[in-house]
Amino acid sequence: MTQSKLFDNTSNPSPKTPGTVQERITRLRETIRQHDYLYYVKDRPEISDGEYDRLFNELVELEEAHPELVTAESPTQRVGAAPLEELGKITHERPMLSLDSLVDSLDVVAFDQRMKRELETDQVEYTVEPKFDGLSVELVYDQGVFVRGSTRGDGITGEDATINLRTIRSLPLQLQMGATPPSHLVVRGEVYMRLDDFHALNKRMTERGDDAFANPRNAAAGSLRQLASHVTAERPLVVTCYDVMVVDGPPPASHWEELEALALWGLPIPSHRRRCESIEAVMAFHRETEQQRDNLAYEIDGVVVKVNRRDWQDQLGTKSRSPRWAMAYKFAPRKEITVVQDIVVSVGRTGTLTPLALLRPVEVGGVTISRATLHNADEVARKDVRVGDTVKVERAGDVIPAITERVPVPGETRSASFSMPDHCPVCGAAVAREGAYFYCTGQAACPAQLKGAIEHFASKSALNIEGLGKKTVAQLVDQGLIHDLADLYHLSREQLLTLEGFAERSTAQLLDAIARSKTVSLDRFLMGLGIRQVGQHIAKVLAREFGSLDAIMSGDQDRFQAIQEIGPEISASLVSYFQESSNRRVISRLRELGVSIAETAAVPRETPLPFAGKSFVFTGGLVGLSRDEATAWVERLGATVSSSVSKKTSYVVAGADPGLKLDQAQKLGVTILGEEAFLELVKKQAGT
Ligand code: IVH
């Protein structure tokens, strides 16, 4: 059938009366919707871009001339909503569950046996499909029209992403009416970015001077959670639907039929999917998919296995956060082989020397890797990695690429083993050693340490000087405009204007941000000083205990160690930092230049705080408050926050898309709180 027979878009060229305008508009919308479907969902366009543009422009012109006829589901209305102050909250119609993850084939066999045992049958049919590596969304259609959509959030409540989701071209604003869609439909799907689009986006971002996204998932999440939908509209997001959460009328009898129904209504579904009559067939699908993984246009991190029959799904039921009838059968982390071209040593903020392998660039899962950390000298020795060696590199999720092992090549001539330099590769000062760690002794005279120190001082959790990023700091130090932290407050407009990329506006903004940072709380200031071993938490403990910088500066080893959280290493580090005359000089210059450090009322230790002795671990994203805010809340009440779960952990707070920490907590029987329960507990303890 030709295109013109399918969609007659040539009739009624010059509408005159309102009746015919309405008809023409309706017809154009249907035609455009159909072509959007063919292009974005079916990947099978039937008209040229030029023809499509003509239809679209005609609709735009008609709607401009007749604004009273514009409706929300018109294809012209994807972009253009006013930017939001913040994303609102939406409570999901059904909890958005997570999936148990399995990697080991023995666990997969055990899963199948459990299904058979619980269903009292000897054969279970599964549906298998890719596990898309994006972010999960809930999409709501009323009378076939897309009315709202949200991110998963904590599984109960998510962020309202309606205006941003509307910009995704593969998401129909109206379902295929011919297929009589249900009057109420809630669908779950995944929003993600294709690899080629992700690379092109990153290229555009870096050319503009913006930071590139670490991976397609971050790019998709960052794009969907924008406050201005016109930004999302420029980001190449796609959506695939894989679950009917709510439907009025009888639900499809199996997952396979559910996917077919979604497709019939015009929603994009996984094109790569299979019904498997046995767990062996599931394993074959997993194997084949893993082999095809590198040729796919998008990132997947495993396959999802679902018991096909709905009545069986209902019979198996769900656990607290995941269904019993489904699981994610993940792929092993990707590894590639490459060659170590050089081993260089980088110098960090506190002077620590870190060996870094420069690799022959290799693509690992769509991301080009050209360097990998070797952590410290012991690690290099243990793995015996040398320049010229062939090695395996691994990238697991967001983790920084690592060399997992050396691959011996028969007959190879190896270079000398690596050893740490005696002198700092940046400033030439002597290198000192502490256990496995090597330090440059140059301190602020070492440009690498100075740059790191200033970046740290300006960072979000310290003085929070917006606009003072890595590139600017490097220029300031390299051009000799800054020799210590205090020099920041000496910078003039004229000096900043000499920097690359600085014009009047950006200069004024940076000076303003520097001026604003002059009023700072004691804990942030302490944290900003970059004292070894003194991070956000210890800075807060010190501020709470001492109340003023002068009191801290005159503290001695015994006084510091009397504090529960502070051991001999931290107190030694504090004493040596404040004994150093150059550090005292910088602090007094900072004060002279107007940096005012707010004093906090020291909390007498006799009144135990409500969370004293309790420890929290956060996993997943929180919706109503940032991780920093949540940390601040519990720490103010006396708790500590840790990054890993142990038996001693008091609470694990699980937000959106929680990580392995949640599984760990379940295994160890640690109390798990959702965001709501967490807030309730905090409010109760804080007495608010
Ligand atoms: S089904 C009740 N199917 O994986 C079943 N999830 O680790 C709900 N995901 O948060 C999920 N591809 O975002 C399902 N084909 C697929 C999926 C999929 C990706 C994500 C989903 C979920 C995560 C669980």
Condensed summary:
By secondary structure, this protein is α+β, with helices and mostly antiparallel strands. It is built from 25 helices and 24 strands.
Broad CATH class of the largest domain:
Alpha Beta
Poorly predicted regions are 1-16
Q: What is the average of the pLDDT values?
A: 89
Write out the CATH superfamily name of the largest domain.
DNA ligase/mRNA capping enzyme
Number of helices: 25
Oligomeric organization of the protein chains: single chain
Write the layout of secondary structure elements.
Layout lengths: L2 H4 L11 H24 L7 H17 L23 E3 L9 E2 L2 H15 L6 E7 L2 E8 L2 E7 L5 E3 L2 H4 L18 E10 L1 H13 L8 H9 L4 H6 L2 E11 L7 H10 L9 E3 L2 H14 L7 E8 L2 H7 L9 E5 L3 E14 L5 E12 L2 E7 L3 H7 L6 E6 L6 E5 L24 E4 L2 E4 L6 H12 L11 H9 L14 H5 L6 H13 L2 E3 H7 L7 H11 L2 H5 L3 H5 L6 H12 L1 H12 L3 E3 L16 E5 L7 H10 L3 E3 L8 E4 L5 H9 L2 E3 L1 H12 L2
Parallel strand pairs: 2-11, 19-20, 21-22, 21-23, 23-24
Antiparallel strand pairs: 1-6, 3-9, 3-10, 4-5, 4-7, 7-8, 10-11, 12-13, 12-15, 13-14, 15-16, 17-18
The structure holds 2-(butylsulfanyl)adenosine.
Provide keyphrases for this structure:
688 residues; alpha+beta; D-amino Acid Aminotransferase, Chain A, domain 1; 5 domains; five-stranded antiparallel β-sheet; binds 2-(butylsulfanyl)adenosine
Description:
With 688 residues, this protein is an alpha+beta fold. The chain is 37% helix and 20% strand. The chain has a five-stranded mixed β-sheet with strand order 2-11-10-3-9. The chain has a five-stranded antiparallel β-sheet with strand order 14-13-12-15-16, covered by helices on one side. A four-stranded antiparallel β-sheet has the order 5-4-7-8. Helix 13 packs across helix 14. The longest helix is centred in the first third of the chain and has 24 residues. The radius of gyration is 29 Å and the shape is globular. The termini are far apart. The N terminus is likely disordered. 2-(butylsulfanyl)adenosine binds next to strand 3, strand 8 and strand 11. 2-(butylsulfanyl)adenosine (IVH) binds next to strand 3, strand 8 and strand 11.
